[in-house]
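FW: tagging you since you asked about this chain on Friday. Here's the raw sequence from the shared folder, copied in full. Didn't touch anything.
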Amino acid sequence: MKIIKFFALVSACFWAVGCGMNLDRGLVLHSDFEHDARDLGPNHYDGFLRSNAVISDDCAVGESSVYLDGQGAYVEYPEGKTYFDGDYSISIWAKWEKCNVASRILDFNQVMPMAGNAITWFIGLPEEGTSNNLWLEQWIMVDGAPVRSERDIMAVPSDAYLGYNVTTDRWDHYVIVYNSSARNPLGNQVNSKDQKIPYRGKVTLYVNGVKVGENYHCLKPQPVPTVANWLGRSRYVQDPRFQGWLDDFRIYDRKLSEKEVQALYDLGES
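HL: got it, structure written out here
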């Protein structure tokens, strides 16, 4: 099986090169979880396996992934770095063993929640008749007041909903693409100081190479370093941890094209 995966990975890489794509361009962070959480990107933002996070041979790309037990395990990346600034894309393979409301795929945040620039990607409140809804929130700070990318966190369905419901016990490839210059029809958000903050751009979710949802409740990230940079853990201590496997985690400082999203999906085996 590992030999088959290796040749599939090599074939996908050659296909991407043949199509004129460079999947390293704009790469901010890349952990393939082959043995550890080392960063293969140009910045060397090496991650650390925390609280019983372990390398597993159940994987989607290459020969291994990271397993998080849903109890305390998570992956941590260096603080004081600017991982998101304007346009961005996030790519990750995930295999959920169990889905819990508010468990995070990713939370790149500040010392305290709602204390500044942040990106959080997680299971949200279920829409009626569904479960395991995938959400994304972007937070910014304006004149000391936090602004988030949804109007009411208790709304069902929430404005942060990405239009996809997670399935457990299988590998899926998830990509978020944020286009800060896309036309946004939603007007303004209002912060706690009654300041009007315009929604900016568009978030698109791809699953297994296919576009499945869009969301306009988004804000343009500010060029501000984050402190708590985690896979599988929330800045809110009461939130449940991610339970399952993660593989081939990437952050880009640009918008990936649909062909590039497909090429990243083709690196793995669902």
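FW: The longest strand covers residues 88-98.
HL: agreed, and The mean pLDDT is 90.
FW: great, closing this out.
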